[in-house]
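Recall the central idea of this unit: under ordinary conditions, the amino acid sequence of a chain determines the structure it adopts. In this exercise we apply that idea directly, starting from the sequence alone.
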Amino acid sequence: MTQPAILRTDERRFMELALEMAMRATIETSPNPKVGCVIVKDGNVIGRGWTQPVGQAHAEVQALRDAAAQGHDVKGATAYVTLEPCSHFGRTPPCANALVQAGVARVVAAIEDANPQVAGRGFAILQQGGISVASASELGWQDIADTAREMNVGFFKRMETGKPWVRLKVAASLDGKTALSNGQSQWITGAEARQDGHQWRARADAILTGIGTVIADNPALTVRGVHTPRQPKKVVLDPQLRIDPDAQLFNDAEVLIVCAQKNAEKQAALISRRAEVICLPDSQGRVDLPALMQELGRRQFNEVHVEAGAILNGALMTANCVDELLIYLAPKLLGSGAGLFSLPTFTHVDQAQQLAIHEMTTVGDDIRILARCRKSK
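Accordingly, the structure predicted from this sequence is:
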């Protein structure tokens, strides 16, 4: 089962095409990773696929079906896939077995799966089935491997730590104000930035906010103006259960309320609005933020999108619970007003929270910055 040699540049192009396929699955696949697959024979692409919604076919099976639908025989072909084919029976059968049964001769995978149920076992099944296996790093494509991991940053974080990737979004003026001193904040950034923010909401599994924001703004916490097959779960931190059961965020979806103090009467009123209430107190009577992240990981949330006020923003940063800041800066100065974070008072510059700029671009008239947090030990 061999095919004519393919130039390395062509191989890279096929893997880049597989990454493009994976991008088509950005919103629908969680808790599964986004994966793309391209099947090539005699230098020609004969099948393409990407991960379908949970419980449906994975990328490799989709590509095999696509090839069959076009009348192609995949025996002796090469499959380019953005993640190691799965090796376990979950909601669907193992993709590694499907590739062996189809008679594929070679598999090139961008990166090994971090899922402990897979983690090299998929490659082993392929090799035991007579399939040659290569990874992107072995082919000298470290940037491809990095892109494949970045595409599923939340999945990898959850597999490796049990916690989701937490992205904290803020919109501010150039002088770091999120609202005027009278509380007015609509709108600091432009329409393009606001729509871009909804794109980031759409890819998340949950939107997290605090009771202060709910009381002040009565937000819907929904994805709007962006096509999405599902809305993220709404999570509200409400230590003393002060939330109004008539708040509009209860109107269209189930809500997870996280408290630190139980109150049977208030809990019953919230449950009547389809809310789920859990109690996770810390030793100071506040919500235990690290425990909450562990709970969200247990619920198979890969990415959590935070839109909150300065107090919760600061608490999450101080508790080391944020992986990335999504910052929109508008080209205006607001003067006196609300800030981005409520942080402890530092006495030395080296006590500051360390960040690394991951990406910076313009969105309309505003600047979008992605800054990664450098976690303290």
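The two ends are 51 Å apart (CA to CA).
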